[in-house]
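so my prof wants the structure for this chain in the tokens format not the other one, which i didnt know existed until like an hour ago. anyway here's the sequence
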Amino acid sequence: MFVYVLIACDRLDEKQEKKLRQNLPALQAALQTYADENAATTVTLINDCESDDCEDWQLGISQQVKKPLHLNPPVNLFNSLAEQYDIDCEVGFIEDDTREAVSYFGKHEGRGEAFLIAGYLGI
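here's what i got, hopefully its the right format
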């Protein structure tokens, strides 16, 4: 199953959007590093932040997951980014090139738990 984890860029207030714009280069660098270090496990960077409107941004990773244990590294990464950059995250699965969200976690939503997310994904 291919799963994705995105930084939630929609429904931000003005202060959150400003902070996200300021932190965008650091977030992109952290995600690129993760994707590069995990290329063998089919991690792909999602980096579509060209729009002037943050709400349209897609920033995160997709990754093939076969066992709940495989969710630990990306969930831990995004928990760390959420704490450091005051963001929330969306996690879901990809089927027929369509993303389907199953859960949210992060600074405001609460820490993500890989085991619970695996249950939501049906892994």
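also thought this was worth mentioning. The radius of gyration is 13 Å.
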